[in-house]
Amino acid sequence: MATYVECGETRVLIDPGAMLAPSRFGLAPAEEEWEALRRANDRISAYAARASLVFVSHYHQDHFRHDPGLYAGRRLWAKDGTRHIEGRQAQRAAALWRALAAHTEPLAAEGRRLETADTVVQASPALSHGPDGTPLGYVVALTIEDRRDGTRFVHASDVQGPLSPVATAYLVRQRPTLLYLSGPPAYLEAQLGVGLVDRGIDHLRRIIEQTGCRVILDHYALRDAAYGERFRRLWETGRASTAAGFLGLPDAPLEARRLDLWRGRRKPPMPLRPSRARGVAPRNSRPGLRRAKEA
Known about the structure:
alpha/beta
C-alpha cells in the first residue's frame, strides 16, 4: 500500500512499509516474493528521499518502517499512538516515536490539515480497520486535493471493503476522484463469512455510485487467488482496477500464487526467522513458518 503523491510542491509518501506473509498455504515466501520485496523497499527509500511529508496510517508492520532515518528531516504525520490503539500496535507506536525523538517530531495525524497554494492535505479521524469493533484497531485515511483542478486522491489504507458503514460514509463525504484501499478480505471468507465480504463489495459500489470515483484495490483483495471472479461486481462497474492494472501492468499477486511458485521445487527448511524491522531476508536464507498476527 506504500504510495507516493506529488501535487504542486507538496510531495507525500504514504505508508512507507512492505512485508511478506511469513506463512501462506503452510509455505514460506518464495524467492520471487523476496526479490519483489527487495525492489519495493528500494523504491520506498528512493521516494522517501523526495518526500516533504511522510504519513503513517497505522502500525501494522507492512505500513511503516522502523528505521528513523527514513523520516529524518521530513514532516511526519502518524496515527496517534495513545488513542484508539492497543496491543502490539500501541507497543510499536511507542517504540517508533521514541526512536524518532532525535530525528524528527511526529505529529498525531487524526484530523490534521495542511494547505498550500496548490494543495490541501486532510487526515481523517480514526476509522475501523475492517468492521466496527474489530480487534485489528483503527487506521487513518488521507485526502490530497489538487486546488488547481479539484482532483481528490484518497488513500484509505486498511478500511478493507470498507466493511464499516462509518468509514463508508466518511469516504463518500470526501468525494474522491481516485480512491485507493485494501479491498474486502475475501481470502478470509471461510472465517469471516460470505456476508461480510459481500457487505464490503456493496459499500464500495455505493461509494463508486455516489461519487463517480475510480477505485484501486490492493493488498487484502489480492490475497485470494480467485479475486478476479470474487470481485466481478466491482470490475464490471468499469471504475475499479488493481494497482498494477491502473498502471497498465499485468497483475503479479505473488502471495496468492505461492503454491504455484513452490511447485516442483524443494520446499524450504526451517531456518532463523527473518528480521521484521527491515522486511528483507538475506538472499541465501528462507523464513521460518511461524504465523504472524497482524494485530
